[in-house]
Inverse folding.
């Protein structure tokens, strides 16, 4: 079974609109971390936002927020007021197990290609 | 603050040769991770080094190896190159001992095997 599932291979969104990128995960661990990264065409992976499994509040970083629904095992990324520079691949990733426990490898989803239309 | 740096940016080799990729972590970070991003296979975890030791390894053959130096920089070596080793190799670093262990990535080395 896929550990991280991103069901939207591609999305087209009008500039200034909000966009939600879907991510569901599968783990039996109680402690885990969820990450979102942005990968422009240049190739570099840019860290956007992090959510720990025990965090009670949804994470927010500027225009990015993470809609964390633990019971549904979903961690959707919401980008408010999209900009042309948001066009890129977006990856959801998970670290299973607690931090500093030797589980630091990340498992990535297949990504969503987001295109912002002017 | 300087980010993760990788060299070279591009590397072209032929089948059977060896490739060496280098990574310098963010200052103060002790952990270095290597990932392979091949077309159609997505991002896959390769190796994790911390404090000079290999801590974890992904499902890759032994011809993928590496090391971490005392200054925490790292080298990835790929021996007996095969065509399917063509990929973007991404290095990341993190600071252990904090609540989050966010991995910050470098720009990658694009390896082409002819």
């Amino acid at each position: 079974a896929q550990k991280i599932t991103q069901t939207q291979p591609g999305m087209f969104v009008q500039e200034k609109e909000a966009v939600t990128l879907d991510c569901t995960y599968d783990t039996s661990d109680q402690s885990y971390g969820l990450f979102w990264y942005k990968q422009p065409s240049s190739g570099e992976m840019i860290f956007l936002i992090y959510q720990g499994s025990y965090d009670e509040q949804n994470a927010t970083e500027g225009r990015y927020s993470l809609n964390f629904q633990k019971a549904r095992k979903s961690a959707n990324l919401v980008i408010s007021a999209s900009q042309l520079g948001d066009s890129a691949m977006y990856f959801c990733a998970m670290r299973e197990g607690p931090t500093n426990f030797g589980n630091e490898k990340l498992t990535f989803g297949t990504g969503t290609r987001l295109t912002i239309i002017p | 603050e300087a980010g993760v740096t990788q060299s070279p940016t591009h590397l072209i080799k032929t089948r059977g040769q060896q490739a060496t990729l280098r990574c310098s972590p963010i200052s103060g970070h002790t952990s270095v991770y290597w990932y392979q991003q091949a077309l159609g296979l997505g991002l896959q975890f390769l190796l994790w080094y911390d404090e000079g030791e290999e801590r974890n390894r992904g499902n890759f053959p032994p011809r993928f190896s590496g090391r971490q130096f005392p200054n925490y920089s790292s080298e990835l070596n790929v021996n007996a190159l095969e065509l399917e080793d063509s990929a973007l190799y991404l290095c990341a670093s993190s600071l252990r001992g904090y609540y989050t262990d966010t991995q910050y990535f470098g720009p990658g080395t694009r390896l082409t095997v002819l």
User: Anything to note?
Assistant: DSSP finds no helices and eleven strands in chain B. The longest strand of chain B covers residues 42-50.
